[in-house]
Amino acid sequence: MAKKKSAKKETIIPATGGLPSLPVEQGEWLGSGSTLLNLACSGHTGGAFYPGGIFHLPGDSDTGKTWICMSAFAEAAQNPAYDNHLLVYDNIEQGTLMDIRACFGQRAADRIQQPPRGTSQWLEDVYFSIDELLDAGQPFIYVLDSMDAADSQAAQERAAADKEARDAGKAPTGAYKTEKAVINSARLRTISQRLPANKSMMFVISQTRDNLAGGMFGPTKRYSGGKSLKYYTRLQMWFSSGKALHKTVRGKKHHIGITCKVRIAKNHVYGRRADVEFPILSHYGIDDTGSCIDWLAANSNTWKKRDLSIDAPDFDFSGTKAKLVSMIENDGRHKELHMVVSQVWSEINEALKQDRPSRYT
């Protein structure tokens, strides 16, 4: 049983233009664990996701998709607005073996649970579990990991019927690779309509594969489950891997993490597309402070990166990145850092606007 924590308000630092016009209280915005991803998704530092939405995370293997969803659980466990939410993890892939307590905290570890019907075997089971949760009325955050591992029972039954037909010398009943798309198309529409009623949300992870039919100009990647996955989601975030991260110990390089690259391909929250990247360290998680420093060094007019040192005038600092990270984290100056990132993000967005009079009054 998790200990009752004292209520604290989430600090929201809006970008220029204010918060999106959604029926969401400021404290209800759910963070992703990355300030840059929060800004790319919602336009403010306080969160990326909001109650009532479906969020789709397609991407290659080992690119941070599950880590973002687990970070959302951790953020919910720290946010009083989500004290009554069930944190439901449908780990169909059975691929998450990290230490949940060490990486995401004891509060999240105590609250993460299986779906009502247990870990799903079929895609149909996923929607049956969600139906039961919605009927029960208690709000929840549901993570499906992943759509690819959730095979359709209808597809398996048709495959068995085709085998019997072939063995009997008869023509097969037809292709059986569209059942998952049909189920998603029918069920996601209903789910998307019901989630807002009790401020629940759903995350869907998808594995990508090469799109051999894309040709020279089509998309190079695709995912299974049909077009409804994009149609009914409020955010679609494509994940890919950047450079591997290493640390030299005793003269040898050792792998310590990845650079997670995220492209916001669909955004019904903030209304714009964006690309961000941030490190995910194997024994720590998302390096939010380090990613903010790197982003400011590359995008601010005043911060400068010179060889192995960084000039950060907002902190009256000049020295190595490691020392700047240590100062910010040990002195609890995260909010100051987020304010600087938000300001620079707003300045860039202002510069991107068309300097033309509005057509409408």
Short descriptors:
361 residues, alpha/beta, Rossmann fold, nine-stranded mixed β-sheet, three-stranded antiparallel β-sheet, 11 helices, 14 strands, 34% helix
Please describe what this structure looks like:
The protein folds into 2 domains: 27-168 and 177-281, P-loop containing nucleotide triphosphate hydrolases (Rossmann fold); 287-349. The chain is 34% helix and 23% strand. The longest helix has 19 residues, at 334-352. The strands form 3 sheets. A 9-stranded mixed β-sheet has the order 3-2-4-5-1-8-9-10-11, with helices on both faces. The chain has helices at residues 35-42, 65-78, 100-104, 106-111, 123-136, 153-167, 179-194, 228-231, 288-299, 321-330, 334-352, and strands at 54-59, 86-90, 112-113, 140-145, 201-207, 209-210, 221-222, 235-249, 252-267, 274-281, 285-286, 304-306, 309-312, 317-320. It is globular and about 80 Å long. The protein is an alpha/beta fold and 361 residues long.
Could you give the topology of this structure?
Layout: H1 35-42, E1 54-59, H2 65-78, E2 86-90, H3 100-104, H4 106-111, E3 112-113, H5 123-136, E4 140-145, H6 153-167, H7 179-194, E5 201-207, E6 209-210, E7 221-222, H8 228-231, E8 235-249, E9 252-267, E10 274-281, E11 285-286, H9 288-299, E12 304-306, E13 309-312, E14 317-320, H10 321-330, H11 334-352
Parallel strand pairs: 1-5, 1-8, 2-3, 2-4, 4-5
Antiparallel strand pairs: 6-7, 8-9, 9-10, 10-11, 12-13, 13-14
Helix pairs in contact: 5-7, 9-11
